Amino acid sequence: MENGERKQAKILGFGVDLMSFSEALEFTMNRLRAGQGFQVVTINPEMIEIAKKNPDFASVLNNAELVIPDGVGIKLALKIKGINQENIPGIEYSKKLIGLCAQNGLPVALLGAKEEIVQKAKQNLLKEFENLNIVYTRNGYFSKEDEESIKNDMTAAAPKAVFVALGAPKQEFMIQELKKSMPDAVFVGVGGSFDVWSGVVKRAPEIYRKLGLEWLYRTLKEPERFKRIFPALPLFLIRVIIESVFQKKGY
Fold this sequence. Notes:
It is a single chain. This protein has one domain: Response regulator (Rossmann fold). Helix content is about 50%, strand content about 15%. The chain has helices at about 20-35, 45-55, 55-65, 70-80, 90-105, 115-130, 145-155, 170-180, 195, 205-210, 215-220, 225-230, 230-250; strands spanning about 10, 15, 40-45, 65-70, 110, 135-140, 160-165, 185-190. Strand 5, helix 6 and strand 6 form a beta-alpha-beta unit. It is globular.
């Protein structure tokens, strides 16, 4: 995003920022240093499918200040459009951001997952990153009535980077509320990342990640994921192909 310009590609009507992993981190840190808070969406095909049926969620995606391509589905969709975009896994982006927060003295908050998971994730992150300051931790099991107290407590703790692991679209809606009282913080929806950071769930071996096949590894480990991926992912890509054909013909 040089000189404030935002370079995006549209996938089924939703913008995806085109930048490298390092550029995404640089953009994030520059805004944090300037006291400009924002929302990061780590977009994947499943989120786009939800958004097409949920106008409120579509609005969240369209208004996020940074939308990074997370996963092979988005990478393939961009490839279909002739764009060779680097995959930016949300879990890796978030982990790098936590490390940068530790280096720069920026406090962090963790919200989501089961109590034992978020606490173990906190312990592991504190061991991994020297000088990391986690000022707020809360599990993700709360009612609508609890949201105001969570918002007040987190605002009082004043983190500069907030990682919310509630799953989409719940985490993105929660971030929308939290942003209102913390305009200088960055918020990232991180899905199941706390499970990995806690050590309860193992990430795919590096060879799977390099080949863009982490989804396959996770499906083999968790067969129940198969129903979520098929036929959803192939149908998503077919729609992208149709969209691209029509755009090329000028429709």
